[in-house]
Amino acid sequence: MNRDVWKSLTLGTSSKWFLMSVLVGVVAGCGAIAFQIAGQLVVRYVLVEYSGFTPGEGHGERALFAHPDSPFSFPMLLLVLTGGGLVSGLLVYTFAPEAEGHGTDGAIDAFHNRRGNIPLRVAIVKTLASAITLGTAGSGGREGPIAQIGASFGSLIGRRLKLTARDRRILLATGMGAGVGAIFRAPLAGAIFAGEILYRDADLESDVIVPAAIASIISYSVYGLFLPEDLCFAHIFGGLSQYSTHSLTELLPYTILALVLSSVAVLYIKVFYGIHDLFAKLPGPRHIRPAIGALLTGLVAAALYYCFGQDRDVLAVLSTGYGTLQKGLEAPQDVAVQVLIVVAFFKILTTSLTIGSGGSGGVFGPSMVIGGCTGVAVGKTCSYFWPELIKNPGAFGVVGMAGFFAGCAHAPISTIIMVSEMTGSYRLLLPTMWVSTLCFLLCQRVSLYRKQVPSRLES
After folding, report:
1. CB within 8 A of 308, min separation 6: which ones?
2. 360: which of 36, 86, 129, 345 fits an S-S bond (Cβ 3.0–4.6 Å)?
């Protein structure tokens, strides 16, 4: 169907966008399902089968396939990690070099500089490469891959309908938001994310919000109905609705948290792009760089694992790391401050090695772990000095998740909503807004997404 046919429709412009948004939502939801199944298959038949390592997850997620009771072997884990990096690198650099890295930057670049065009092969390669990277315990998240996958589907629909460049860009951003809304089960946040993540300053692509909201809700529904009954529409980090704010005085320790998070966010960005630039200078074929990064990631995890007496909690530096984060949020007394700090800081290193080397994965998931673990560590430390004021250090982890990414990505509004949807509670909205705003202001000079432009005037 071409553009002239669309113009000749008796339906109004709003109806046209509604139909296209529904189409993007259905396709993005199916893409999220394919991505999730592919990743779970790699975990089940490669990672668990050969190394015995099962990555931890949040309450609202679990393995879709039964795992065998395999003995854990770190040498085999190193082999699986390295092999996963090699296969991912071969796929990406052979068929779609645009699919390297964390993905969201590629979608942002296509919106600003490529007239909303992303080749379909990017979605296919990104799905496979990211499933392999994350499924073999590479340190990364699902946001970047699904954002680029959804964006490429939106771009494809725009090209097939022969829409204008402006309309293609809107559909691209709509697909990006739909993918994020589905995979993180945060449809409202996905819609805001699509318009907010494009810019470095406090700006928003308003034309994207309504189509992205429709597409995000549809993709969220498609994805949620695919899951088993007990996980259908479940919050990723459930069981945290008891956390709340009881006094404005609590904003004082939360201010300390914002200062700490901002410092860690700057460190994260500097280390990530420092390692990225180092790998870019390595001689030899680019195909093997992700394998080198994966091997180094495994060696870092091995050193931590044996230094901490084979404590499985420190292995949150691999894969998504959601298991240790869930434990820290829900039962902070069961995780030592030292472990939380080590996970937060070494997650920066392992994520930089995995993705900065050219591996395929997202940076939002690791940001949640880094910010959440830092938040719980700060909360437990502050509770030592103000035991009457801070009764739930885990609440600092929830706020830390939002504040950290708000500073890194310059997307405070969508991040606040996303963390609230992921945890199933808006009772920490005040401190979350306070910390996210402070982090956003303190991190103005740095950004995790290099392709962001300051405002719509520069797009």
Report:
1. 314, 339, 342
2. 129
> Given pLDDT bands bounded at 50, 70 and 90, which one contains residue 49?
very high
CA angle, residues 100, 101, 106, in degrees to nearest 5 = 80
Sign, CA dihedral 109-168-127-238, equals positive
Convert the pLDDT of each residue in 101-128 to its tens digit: 777 888 898 899 888 899 888 888 988 9
Q: What does the alpha-carbon distance between residue 147 and residue 87 come to, in Å, rounded to a whole number?
A: 22
User: Does pLDDT of 436 surpass 90?
Assistant: yes
| 235-286 residue pLDDT tens | 888 777 678 888 889 999 999 999 999 999 999 999 999 999 999 999 989 9
Nearest CA among 401, 409, 320, 458 for reference residue 105: 409
Instruction: Print the SS3 string covering the chain.
Output: CCHHHHHHCCCCHHHHHHHHHHHHHHHHHHHHHHHHHHHHHHHHHHHHHHHCCCCCCCCCCCCCCCCCCCCCCHHHHHHHHHHHHHHHHHHHHHHCHHHCECCHHHHHHHHHHCCCCCCHHHHHHHHHHHHHHHHCCCCCECHHHHHHHHHHHHHHHHHHCCCCHHHHHHHHHHHHHHHHHHHCCCHHHHHHHHHHCCECCCCCCHHHHHHHHHHHHHHHHHHHHHCCCCCCCCCCCCCCCCCCCCCHHHHHHHHHHHHHHHHHHHHHHHHHHHHHHHHHCCCCCHHHHHHHHHHHHHHHHHHHHHHCCCCHHHHHHCCCCHHHHHHHHHCHHHCCHHHHHHHHHHHHHHHHHHHHCCCECECHHHHHHHHHHHHHHHHHHHHHHCCCCCCCHHHHHHHHHHHHHHHHHCCHHHHHHHHHHHHCCCCCHHHHHHHHHHHHHHCCCCCCCCCCECCHHHC
**Angle formed by the axes of helices 364-385 and 393-409, to 10°?**
140
CA distance 127 to 144: 11
* Residues near 111 by beta carbon (within 8 Å), at least 6 away in sequence: 151, 169, 172, 173, 198, 459
CB atoms within 10 A of CB 161: 18
Looking at residue 241, its pLDDT comes to 66
